[in-house]
Amino acid sequence: MRLIFLGTPAFAVPSLETLSEEGFEIAAVVTQPDRPRGRERRLSPPPVKEAAERLALPVHQPERIRRPEVVEWLAGLKADAMAVVGYGQIIPQSVIDLVSLGIINVHASLLPKYRGAAPVQWAIANGEVRTGVTTMRIDAGLDTGDILLVRETAIGPEETAVELGVRLSQMGAALLAETLRGLEAGVITPRPQDHAAATLAPLLKKEDGRIDWTWPARNIYNRWRGFQPWPGIYTTLRGQNLLVWNARLAEQPGEGNPGTLRASGDRLLAACGEGSALELLEIQLEGRKRLASTEFLRGWRLAENEVLGDVAV
Predict the structure, then answer these.
(1) Hey, which residues does 133 pair with through a beta bridge?
(2) What's the pLDDT at 13?
(3) Distances (CA, A) of 304 to 12, 105, 243, 251, 262
């Protein structure tokens, strides 16, 4: 089978590697242009570009895939199918129509749940205990195409989005290869999604990480797990931004109103909703270095009624 692979992030790299290892003919790898990153704003290649060069595959980085000259170039490759994993651009109908077996996408959720840009993050943040990967045939909608194959997995109670993302990328790679082989053999029957059951997983915003201390500690902890590495979770302390780098559910109940911060021995506890508490393990005040809670307590005298979140960020 002759393929065009479209992908950009690290999540897509195992899929590209697996297709290459399993003998698929990859006519071209299409990825996003190099972007400036870091404080020095140096141009950095996307992970898929680095992987493709390592595999000696031809790489193309069009600014917009929908441009007529790009569509014409893709048509000239005469591929049987395209594989898309986190490419980062909407695929227009003019491209969808180019390949006989369709454009096959790996999506990191159990569709139709968590359509959108951040399915791993929102599944954890919302307290889901199971998720998975779905291969689907792309259509003109947002993750609305027919489902091809699905693989399910449990979400660990302490698993972060980073950790789960690595697992799902490997699962998705294997499922993509299986899907393409099945389509080639004619043994997969696409099935429409139940659009009434759809939920959304929109692109994350910094505001999503703001802590509402009236929520139960479990809900806040799930957001900490889900919003790794960005935006994390944050609050304020005495008018200064406070980033929570690490946390866990406290064994002790919360004391005081939600947001009340207290020390219990060398532990730093924040009262949450429903009488629960979150233990803050590593924090960072605005303009200062990251500190373990034990270090923070040695250098900061807590007031009797110290409250978090007293000033909007």
Answers:
(1) 151
(2) 98
(3) 50, 55, 22, 22, 8
How far apart CA 150 and CA 292 sit, in angstroms, is 41
Q: How far is CA 193 from CA 54, 91, 107, 110, 179, in A?
A: 37, 19, 13, 11, 17
Given a cut of 60, whether residue 96 has pLDDT beyond it is yes
Distance CA 103, CA 3 (A): 10
Q: Give the separation between CA 173 and CA 184, rounded to whole angstroms.
A: 17
Angle at 282 between CA 278 and CA 283, to 5 degrees: 90
Nearest-angstrom CA–CA distance, 12 and 108: 11
The answer to pTM > 0.85 is yes
Looking at residue 38, its pLDDT comes to: 79
For residues 274 and 144, give the distance between their C-alpha atoms in angstroms, rounded to a whole number. Answer: 38
CA distance 85 to 91: 12
